[in-house]
Specification:
alpha/beta; Rossmann fold; 9-stranded mixed β-sheet
Length: 249
């Protein structure tokens, strides 16, 4: 049965071939933490939200007001999609297809998904490495110019697995950036690393000092979301994504 996913626009913006940055709950909450920090630093407004009767009965309160747990922020050149609830496996395709259709209607130039990749010795790593998945020669060039190592073989499971494939099918340039991170608790340090890379790719100037300084506070505030995300990821077997597919060349 097709889910009733809706994107409700709160504000009309004349987008100019924008880049989309997506931060869904994932390994280490890397994408969610990074995306929220960028929205905060850029003081962006909510321009749309996503709703569905199939979402859990959750309303988020920010600044004393109820808001949808899945929202879209932006300006003419940048769009940010964030979620404060893990996405159920049954909704992955519906949400991804609805978003990609909306992206096409806004003449989106590039979609960048942000996530984490679990590293068993994360505590020993001073500077987490970022890997990238690209869908065409244009996005290959972006990774190469920014010294991002490609994720050549493996399996990805979860919201970004569906989203990047839907982008490819619909001719939308897309990259999936994954920072090495803790598997089961929030990793703001890895989020800061991925923001620094985005600064370089998109010619931004997002300060990560506050993100690093408030790292422990962020870990505490986001631990409940991490627990719910971990449960969802186990259901999708995300923890196996670093394994090699059974394939011969």
């Amino acid at each position: 049965m097709q889910s009733d996913i809706k994107i409700i626009e709160r504000e009309r913006i004349e987008f100019e071939n924008p880049t989309v940055i997506i931060g869904f709950p994932d390994i280490g909450l890397v994408g969610t933490i990074a995306t929220y920090h960028m929205i905060y630093q850029m003081n962006l407004r909510e321009v749309a939200y996503i709703e569905s009767d199939d979402f859990p009965p959750v309303t988020v309160i920010h600044n004393g007001r109820p808001v949808s747990p899945m929202r879209i922020y932006g300006n003419k050149k940048l769009i940010f999609v964030v979620s404060e609830i893990p996405i159920k496996p049954s909704l992955l395709y519906s949400i991804s297809r609805k978003l990609v259709k909306w992206f096409k209607s806004k003449n989106v130039d590039l979609v960048i998904s942000l996530g984490g990749i679990p590293h068993p010795r994360r505590l020993e790593i001073e500077k987490p490495k970022v890997y990238g998945i690209s869908i065409n020669e244009y996005t290959d060039k972006i990774l190469k110019e920014n010294n991002v190592e490609g994720f050549e073989e493996g399996i990805i499971v979860g919201p970004y697995a569906v989203l990047i494939y839907e982008c490819m099918k619909n001719g939308i340039n897309s990259i999936y950036l994954m920072a090495e991170s803790h598997a089961t608790y929030p990793d703001p340090e890895s989020a800061a690393i991925i923001i620094k890379l985005l600064n370089k790719i998109l010619n931004l100037n997002i300060d990560v000092k506050e993100l690093i300084e408030k790292g422990e506070e962020i870990k505490i505030k986001s631990r409940d979301l991490m627990k719910r995300t971990e449960t969802a990821l186990k259901e999708m077997q995300k923890i196996q994504e670093h394994e090699m597919p059974m394939m011969y060349r």
